[in-house]
Amino acid sequence: MKYNLVNKELRIFSCSVSDLTVQQVASFLEQWEHGAKIGELTLFYEKETDSLVINQDNKNYNKYLDIAESYLTLDDDELQEFSTNIPEGMKETVELLQRCRQRRKALWMLNILKYQYVKGCPGTEEYAIFEELKEKNKNEYTSPFILSDVFSYGFIEGKRAERARRRK
């Protein structure tokens, strides 16, 4: 893929429709309504490279670039206001930008987690708790429920550790 870097900090790139691979074109067209043309592509998010790519051939390229740069730099309060004032025709674009923000936040958290030491190895108290959580949720579609419980448990333990640190 030949993408042109537009905004390094926000990982925004541009490309021409002719720069897309056959697989990308097929994938986009497969997701759209029957009869859509690839020239209608405005922007897309590429997970593998964490890149937001805007179609530079689109007549509204600058408008989409402005929207993307604005949306990706808004804080949560501004984002709420922005989301209530979007025109109907931009909802799909804003949804894509929101998925991009969410994924980037998740990647940021995963990057932080790689520096944390592992807790919950067999034989530890945490492991016993994880096993109980697994048992509690064994008859359900468990992954989201277990992960939610584990996250909550970690949050609670973090609060307890912070309170203990303050008491000292």
Describe the model.
It is a single chain. The protein is α+β, with helices and mostly antiparallel strands and 168 residues long. Strand 3 and strand 4 form a beta hairpin. It contains 6 helices and 4 strands. The protein has helices at 22-31, 61-73, 76-84, 91-113, 125-136, 142-167, and strands at 4-7, 12-15, 43-46, 51-55. A 4-stranded mixed β-sheet has the order 1-2-4-3, with helices on one face. The longest helix is centred in the C-terminal third of the chain and has 26 residues, at 142-167. The protein starts with a strand and ends with a helix. Helix content is 55%, strand content 10%.
Helix count equals: 6
Q: Tell me the radius of gyration.
A: 22 Å
State the end-to-end CA separation: 56 Å
Strand order of the largest sheet: 1-2-4-3
Pattern of helices and strands = EEHEEHHHHH
Strand content: 5-15%
State the helical fraction.
55-70%
Count every beta strand, where a strand is a DSSP E run of 2 or more residues.
Answer: 4
Overall 3D shape: elongated
Query: What is the average per-residue confidence, as pLDDT, rounded to a whole number?
Result: 83
Largest sheet: 4 strands, mixed
What structural class do the secondary elements suggest?
A: alpha+beta
Low-confidence stretches: none
